[in-house]
């Protein structure tokens, strides 16, 4: 096979061989080995970004990748890249992978599956004795979840737009730790890993991920071709009041911040219920009450809003409704309570290109046919992913496998081994074909 001029047949044959060398046992072991870092008694995983346990997991990934013959690099946002050289290293590589951080109470698969399946593709290529025209890089993005430090997808968004990193460094976690300090510690922990520039050219990107929703399981089809990712907006609302004694303060003389927050939250949930037909999704997930004492009237209550929809106009209308609700609640206690809202994160809907989706469909269909299924399901992602930033950087696509009960961001997150194998097989086909393109 001429090293620099691959024919269509070569690319397809190599893709099929890579797919056929994906090893189920090796994949399961790799997922289990990573899940041990932050393992919980309830079967979940707690490995928030740049915590000590995350740094231990990163070291494990570096050693695992080196054992597969990969070169390892890290960029200024501590994104880890595991590179399998191509025959022509002047060409931009094909990127796969996902994130290795988890929610505070996460599962074994969210993000981790895409990283370990990417490394399994490299192991399969090694087993098959295949060289590819382009290099293949598997990435472990920093802080996809955005739970410890907001916003989400810090690593991938800084990779494509490095100027964002300055502001990200000032983000703080619940203990007041700055992202910049945690980042510097993560970089110092890997002095043996060379630093890479950000915003490097990539030929294409494919991210494999669990669906985290119910669609594939209800369709009883183990593979999904992701058509795009819905739009997301995060806000922080702060309701101010006045701390006072719970026993001595008459109800009509209080500036109770919790009363404002609850009145506002009730309006927002009622709005979301009225908008159900639009598939608007509203979550008020993180609440901070000061001074959080049973017998002091709350002086301030802060809560986050996570609003999502495939139709951005719905989110625009939601923002107007939010302002109206705030004005309403301010009116209830006009003199004493103030309410502020701050935008934390916003991302327009993502649409993956047709040619990338077609290639993913080919890889999925070949894998499915081997287990008696016909073809993959096409679906939009309800969750956001690093691929939403890569989609603006290079041709990008995603592959999904089902989540049992549609559950994720929960210790009960689970996908059966046959589906995990199929996802890795579809990834191997797609990435190998792209790497020979
Ligand atoms: O929130 C999300 O959609 C992602 O799972 N972090
Ligand atoms: Mn994820
Ligand atoms: Mn997640």
From TrEMBL:
Note the Pfam families from the entry: Peptidase_M20
Q: Which domain of life is it from?
A: Bacteria
One of the entry's Gene Ontology molecular-function terms is:
N-carbamoyl-L-amino-acid hydrolase activity
Query: What Enzyme Commission number(s) does the record list for this chain?
Result: 3.5.1.87
The UniProt keyword set, sorted, is: Hydrolase
Segments carrying the region annotation (Disordered) are 1-21
The protein in question is named: N-carbamoyl-L-amino-acid hydrolase
Originating species: Cupriavidus pampae
Q: Which gene encodes it?
A: hyuC_3
């Amino acid at each position: 096979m001429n090293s620099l001029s691959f024919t269509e047949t070569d690319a397809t044959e190599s893709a099929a061989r890579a797919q056929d060398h994906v090893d189920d046992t090796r994949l399961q072991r790799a997922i289990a080995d990573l899940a041990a870092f932050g393992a919980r008694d309830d079967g979940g995983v707690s490995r928030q970004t740049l915590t000590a346990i995350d740094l231990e997991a990163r070291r494990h990934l570096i050693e695992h990748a080196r054992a597969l013959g990969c070169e390892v690099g890290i960029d200024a946002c501590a994104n880890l890249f595991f590179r399998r050289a191509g025959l022509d290293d002047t060409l931009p590589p094909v990127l796969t992978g996902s994130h290795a951080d988890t929610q505070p109470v996460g599962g074994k698969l969210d993000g981790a599956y895409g990283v370990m399946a990417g490394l399994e593709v490299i192991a399969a290529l090694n087993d098959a004795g295949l060289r590819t025209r382009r290099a293949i890089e598997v990435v472990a993005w920093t802080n996809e979840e955005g739970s410890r430090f907001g916003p989400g997808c810090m690593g991938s968004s800084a990779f494509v737009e490095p100027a964002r990193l300055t502001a990200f460094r000032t983000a703080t976690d619940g203990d007041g730790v700055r992202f910049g300090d945690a980042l510097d510690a993560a970089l110092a922990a890997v002095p043996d890993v060379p630093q890479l520039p950000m915003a490097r050219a990539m030929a294409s990107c494919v991210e494999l991920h669990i669906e985290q929703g119910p669609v594939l399981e209800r369709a009883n089809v183990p593979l999904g071709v992701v058509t795009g990712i819905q739009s997301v907006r995060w806000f922080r609302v702060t309701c101010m009041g006045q701390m006072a004694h719970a026993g001595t303060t008459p109800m009509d003389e209080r500036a109770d911040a919790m009363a404002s927050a609850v009145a506002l939250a009730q309006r927002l949930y009622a709005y979301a219920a009225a908008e159900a037909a639009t598939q608007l999704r509203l979550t008020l997930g993180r609440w901070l009450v000061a001074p959080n004492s049973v017998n002091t009237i709350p002086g301030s209550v802060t809560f986050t809003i996570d609003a999502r929809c495939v139709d951005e106009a719905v989110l625009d209308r939601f923002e107007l409704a939010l302002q109206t609700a705030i004005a309403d609640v301010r009116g209830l206690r006009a003199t004493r309570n103030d309410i502020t809202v701050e935008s934390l994160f916003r991302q327009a809907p993502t649409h993956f290109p047709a040619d990338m989706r077609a290639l993913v469909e080919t890889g999925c269909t070949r894998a499915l046919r081997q287990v008696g299924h016909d073809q993959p399901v096409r679906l939009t992602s309800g969750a956001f992913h690093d691929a939403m930033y890569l989609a603006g950087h290079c041709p990008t696509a995603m592959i999904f496998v089902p989540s049992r009960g549609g559950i994720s961001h929960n210790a009960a997150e689970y996908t059966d081994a046959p589906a995990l194998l199929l996802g890795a097989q579809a990834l191997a086909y797609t990435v190998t074909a792209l790497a020979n393109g």
